[in-house]
Predict the 3D structure of the following.
Amino acid sequence: MGRPDAVRLQKFLAHAGVASRRASEEIVRAGRVTVDGAVVRDPATDVGGEDGAPARDVRVDGRPVAPVRETVVFAVYKPAGVVSTARDTHGRPTVVSLVPAGDRRLYPVGRLDADTTGLILLTDDGPLADLLTHPRYEVPKTYVATVAGGRVGDAALRRLREGVELDDGPTLPAEVEQPRPGELRITLREGRKRQVRRMCRAVGHPVRELRRVRLGPLELGRLAPGEWRALDGREVAALRAAAR
């Protein structure tokens, strides 16, 4: 049995904002991490001290890693044309550039394609990001889609609700409402690439505009495109609870 106060290396790196826990494991296995001067390739290496606090010299690519004592979570209204990455090789604006990151290494929780607008989270809390994006937890995400073809018929709505056959397999059942002709409110519990667009195209109603309005218990609210706000502790706790 491991010590109850053990701090595993990949968890320490994720909490420090180096990368998500999964990506931190890859960084460790690649031999890029040293602990007390020695290369370590086991992500489960204990780097905790007597009271569970990191007590060893941890470095990534030779640079020391200090624990981040308080993590942040930003809710952002991503505008069209902004990419959901921390950096972009083509020079396009990124969601991270919209918030005051300072020296924190923030990364997006999930992704929205460049043409899709709405709610996205940015955080340096790797474990929280993993909870919200891992398929196992099926955290619901709600979108409002304006679709071509006018009113969506009952048969198409039923297909969307029960599951649509796509080239990578059938989708899970979805919650679908039609507040007005040509507008759908769709809640998914999975996150395939461009899934809403592909589902709507499959039933004969291609998406013209798409906006994410809710992630778990968190709503987009009154944010305008390009605006952000930091979540409080109650909201972060609610997100963690939704993933469990």
Q: What stands out?
A: Confidence is low (pLDDT under 50) at residues 1-5. The helical segments are 9-15, 21-29, 126-133, 154-162, 195-202, 233-243.
